[in-house]
């Protein structure tokens, strides 16, 4: 074994330490961060994505965020930029193949930003970058095999084994939101019926509530969100009703958590993770969702998996995506330097 | 790119070329093989496992098979031994953690054989070795991301990405036989109810037939296998009845294939393979099983997976496990030589 401890850092060295830039491009906001040599965020910024104004506009906004973070780096050298973006991404080609909520088809995001900034730019799917950040520096730190799921607008998953992201063919692995679950009869825009994310997502929770109110079920939500006034409850409204003891809201969270647990059962049995991290906006519902999910998961997997499994909520928040994409950018940079190209 | 073609081999070199030994230890038979420097089998042997006589006896038989193959190598140098064995295996420790059909608990198979033979010995789960062989040299050759399933006594799966086996935490990934499927109410020895392999396996096919006959369903099997005479049909009997146009047998294969397709849908959506290889004894049923499996799989996965997916039956037969374990042994040997230990 070679000695691998970090040596103390001198004042002079501090002034020349590496910096990384991480971005998380969402349908609503672009979040950017400047990260230090250990990929810890030291400055963040955000702006509206304004995706409706088209890819050229969004590319300009991404460039602006990168330049702002680069200015914040001062005299430090920015080594590389990592960008997480929704939908199907081809990281090797630096191509955003398809991003539904941005309206993007085959946008050469990586190459374009590399050209504009002169920096090495690495792009990947936003969920993978978020889970990679949580796996390496968040809830999954110290675990060898990490399964991360994000319950937000949709349901998605990513797997990190010994620091290595699992991609599968065409980088399409981990589409947990599109496994078919029994008893779900909602059609999915993907073309299937019964996809897990029709229920297990913020939109799924809101949909279940709207359908129940439409069917005339009684709830403390009934008054504000009647079929007559056309207003529809959000997942946050349902969570608030849950906390007020509303039977409908409780039943919706129970059902959603139960399906989350069942979806996780498939992923746990096939991937055999040491830890499951539950992240994304809906993870803020905490035990409302996790208690039924845990119950169902325990009932649905061989006890050999259950007994060695840790389940945690993500805790890096919006920093997870910045950290994950900066870490991936630094890893790719090192790899390309070793092989002598980029 | 460096030139990577094989140079012609001289007579002198042939005499000193490497040999590998591969073994597949099953509940019934031990199959052994001598493989050449490219891990192609050049001699095979088999003997009964006689597992009922205890681990010490089986270890002796394994040693005998290794010695026989070593003798067959003549003046060639045997570099390493690879052994596939059922159940949970810890390859790094060389430990057979649990093998139900051998009655083994924590048998140090790898260390013991290394001690007795003086050769480097690598052990791993038999399904992983079988699928690894098929992925690298059989039906999966040339594909980057391979999902292999074996439908035999049970149902199991393994995944090979760019030549690398997927293990997961505690080497427990890929237990496709123990995912819960809707509409299956058989209890499983693993402690769960509704496990896929209760239906999708040779025993599952036989069980469905026995249950139907017990319930008095009419079939050409009814005469030979009546509840009165106590005889029970095997999966091969059901396949023969299928070929004779028996409605019950056709329904059983349709149902089994349908469930296989559904089980595959979960694995395909999570692992995103380029190819699915269906192996194991029941794969010999061919289209009887694969036609309904394909139909259900297509209905149950996002078309982006389906459109790029190849589905094939395994074709190396019992050589797959020998090739897979010899390849893994040679790979591990190279790794340990690079890192300077073993």
Plain-language structure description:
Two copies of one chain form a homodimer. Chain A has 342 residues and is an alpha/beta fold. Chain A has two domains: 16-131 and 319-339, 2-Layer Sandwich (Nucleotidyltransferase, domain 5); 142-313, Nucleotidyltransferase, domain 5 (2-Layer Sandwich). Chain A has ten helices and 13 strands. In chain A, a hairpin with a 4-residue loop joins strand 5 (88-90) and strand 6. In chain A, helix 7 packs across helix 8 (287-300). The longest helix of chain A is centred in the C-terminal third of the chain and has 25 residues, at 247-271. The A-B interface holds A 144-145, 157, 161, 166-176, 178-180, 182-183, 190-192, 262, 265-267, 269-274, 300-305, 308 and B 88, 144-145, 157, 161, 166-176, 178-180, 182-183, 190-192, 262, 265-267, 269-274, 299-305, 308.
